[in-house]
Amino acid sequence: MDNPLGAEDGSEFNLLWETSKTVLQMAEIIRTTEIDEEERIFYNHLRLHCMRFQDCLTRAPQIWSQPKRALISDALCYLGSLIPEVGLQELPSNTTLKPRLKALNLHWSEVQVQAHNAKVEFVVRWLKLGPPEVYLKVDRGLEECADMLEKQQPENGFKKSAYEFLSTGNYEPSYVVWKAAQSLFDALQKCKGCSCSKPHEYGAKLELGTYRSPVKKLDKRSANRCNPRHAPCSDGDVTGKIDFEMFLSMEHDWHEVRVQSVKEKVVGFAIDGHSTPSREIRKAKRVENLCKSINSTKSKAWQRLVLKLTSGQLFNDRIEKSNFWIDKSTEPISLLRCFEERHEFFTEKTKRILSLIIGYAVLHLHGTSWLQSGWGSANIKFFQTTSHKTPLRPFIQVDLPEDATNAGDEIHSKDADDLDFDELDSGHRCPALIALAVVLIEVYFAKSFSKLAQISGIPLENPGGHITLFDVDQVFNGEEENKVEGWRSQIPEDSPLLMAIDNCLNPAMWEDEEGDPLDNATLKSRIYQDVVRLLEAHLTSGFSKIPLDNVDSYARDLDFGQWGQTIDIHEPQKLTSPLSQGSLTPNRTPSPAAAVLDSSRFGIPTKDYLKWRSEYEKVYGKFMATQLPGPPSKPVKIAILDTGIDRDHDSFEAREENIKAKVNFYNNMQKNIPDLNGHGTFTASLILDYAPDAELYIAKIADKENATPNAKIVVDAINHAIDCWNVDIISLSFGWPSTEFEGYDDLEDAIDRAYGKKILIFAAASNSGARLGRAYPASSSQVICVHSTNTSGTPSDFSPTAEPNNLNFATVGESIESAWPMLLCHDLATPQRYVKSRSGTSYATPIMAGIAAFLLQYSRLHLSERASSALKRKEKMEALLKRCAERGPNYAPRGNYYYVELSLHQHNLFGRELERINDEILESLKR
């Protein structure tokens, strides 16, 4: 675009700042009014573009090159094109662009103090969109300007603006769901009465979903067959259908029900506020007694009742075959219980999907009786199927109260205790968003909020009860007086999730300028724009191939109980069978004892591994050894928990200065840490092979036999590494096949402490091949799990199957040569070298820990302190390891493993110049 503003004098910067602020406020108002849906989408995009301009101008207000000035001029031209050149009484005819924009800002500042209707009238007069092809061109132009401005920002660490994650392709959803949901609740209440001798106890579980599927034009036959949930209606639809999947209980016996809420265009008179049902609905029989309808399905195995909801009334439609075969002998498991007992359920993918679905639940159900006061993770339930799958299908559970007349008022009633909690909620106008923030925090850390508070040492106002904004502020943001660091420090500061949580907890966002509650339309729109949309970005930034319009069905196909693996829809369902070992019931068969992971039966010494290691040593020599005049000023500290070491071995005598401390936790009466097994000497030597400038801290936690480490000993060693050694990395080459062992809770707490202190933990996956999954603690979400490959990157047979919805890191773990205790070397063929060749994930683990130490030391030498500090976060180190594994633009992980191998080859990250490597690392830290 030509620059119509004349000579550059710096005023364009201020003009864009003021104009983007004005247009942002105008778009905020007009998008909540009754306008065309395409125009509403445009105003949402316009609002986002202005926010991005504000962000760019705030971050770099002083440095503007000529290309950047041209972009500012283009942005002003696009914004100015929305203002009519003629027809405005406040402007003379044919006013040029710059005066028009200044007049807009001036008059808007005057209108700001007027009533809402006056503001709407002003926006309608001053913003003229024209035909769609015109305003869509403006939309694309503004987006391009914002993109280019962000790309030309000066280096600012590695922080990425959260707005960069937001796609303008996402549309704002329909808000009709909440009306239908409340109507359903009210209709259920009306049907509870019956003539049975004993009152029934009713409960309901409503499936949570996004209801994001795009509207499709259907012929009559497909309309009769389709699941209406996959064709949600917009507010303007006249015959749209919303499908509610739910379970109803009578005396705690759950029965599947599908309710079709039909929104109709009715011609006729309304009686007492209720419209007359259509002819089609009148043919169906009205539900008079809920108990009778539920009982009608009891004798029909694996079938569900279909009800229609219209005009506030329920009608029996039919009974149809169910495709969700729940195991009625197993109680549904709550999300809270998953945090407390089944944290291994959570992968990065299931966390992000679950966060989005629950965010949408608040958007759709806030203000209804489904989302009752005090709701939280305890109210969100998951069913187990007869084939022992746990589909990622969350349900919100509520009781249907005795007194139907008060059901609608229950969520609004307050007693004295509620008023006390209101004070602790700082007058937050939307407590449901506080509850949402709590659940989002819990899901991210896979821990209950009370557990997070306990780890931080912060007492809650009402333990086991209502969580207040005051509680959340202390636990999440920290407590300065007692120097307690908040859990927010563990979430990347550029994360859309963090912004969504902050927005939920900000009372000012949920009230108008006078401090009054927002009207319902504005509230719903703001929840979507400032919370849910960020959760969409949180999902798509990590898993871009998951379509937002298909999240509900995508989640249903994931087995939450098996790390989010896809459920085989062709697998035959077992309608009756005893509970398997993987069942969710607490009485599970104890798993075998843990062992130091060893696989000495694998492989013999090969030249391939030594060549592989030499390629790594070339990288270390080029970017580390030649750059350091002496020992690093801030060396990386690594703790290894194993069977001790042979201090007299040549491998350690030559590197005595690297060993900074040693403690015998296995026998605290003994100061030495003799290795009578060999495993510890082997792994410790490997760490120094790959991190020769690191400081090594050795904890002996097992002895001669390849035996079970005592969990208490491991806990003591980890806590010592945290509190006394202040290490950066902990290497664990052992594990338990499951979490069913004595001392698990204490060990989990110790790992949580290390994670909270930004200590990277690497743990061996296991050597059971496809027979078992990851061992614990490698299965912990706070730990980086290490698998094994050969020197070509082919997964080892003994390495567990890669988890499809998790990051699977692997490095060489076959035929590894390393130091072996001299007293244990009985092989006369090579007695003088005192080395052995071994294979196993427990040997891939110290190699990966050593590579991570190199990356950390590299960042301290070549990058900013901020970048090197970020690498101590598990998520950032994983992002960099993932980048190290990538080979070219079309790289795909082999066998779903990210194979980490460093060399000077041109396809490798370190096969390029230093400046390019640094740029790539900083870019990976933005992910």
From TrEMBL:
Coiled coil: none
Leader sequence residues: none
Domain Peptidase S8/S53: 634-885
Domain of life: Eukaryota
Molecular-function GO terms, alphabetical: serine-type endopeptidase activity
UniProt-listed GO biological process terms: proteolysis
InterPro entries recorded: DUF7580, Peptidase_S8/S53_dom, Peptidase_S8/S53_dom_sf, Peptidase_S8/S53_subtilisin, Peptidase_S8_Asp-AS, Peptidase_S8_Ser-AS, Peptidase_S8_subtilisin-rel
Protein name from the UniProt record: Uncharacterized protein
